Amino acid sequence: xxxxxxxLVLALLRRPLVAATFDEGFARATGQRPTxxxxxxxxxxxxxAVAAFDAVGAIIVIAxxxxxxxxxxxxxxxxxxxxWLSALIAALSATLGYVLAGYGPLWLGGQHSVSxxxxxxxxxxxxxxxxxxFGPRRHRREPLSPx
Length: 147
Fold this sequence. Notes:
One of its GO terms (biological process) is transmembrane transport. This is Mn-Zn_transporter_SitD. Keywords: Cell membrane, Membrane, Signal, Transmembrane, Transmembrane helix, Transport. Belongs to the ABC-3 integral membrane protein family. By secondary structure, the protein is mainly α. It folds into 2 domains: 56 residues, no CATH class; 91 residues, no CATH class. It has 7 helices and no strands. The longest helix has 29 residues.
């Protein structure tokens, strides 16, 4: 139910959220109330965090709130590409982390699996490190332009 509520609010407030988040002056000039929109975004993030903490725990929530968006930001400057790429990176981290947690120790000769949440966080962190070390922004010399 939390997911559906968040998706619904994001769908309804998509344009005001983008304007308030990236150009507060423009949002005010067009009659929007960016402070209110920002508060709505914070409330949505808090609701997602609370629901996720109850479901999966702190380590994975913090890792998935930070690593996929940061990785996507290192790979592209376009907002909607970042959003979709972040979701893809999160799904890849979850899938690969889950598989490695269950089968990785067995492949290495161990008899027990490791924490899935911890392994998912590790995979997300490794993807972020790879983007930071080898991504397209690694060799840029000019300052980044605002998105």
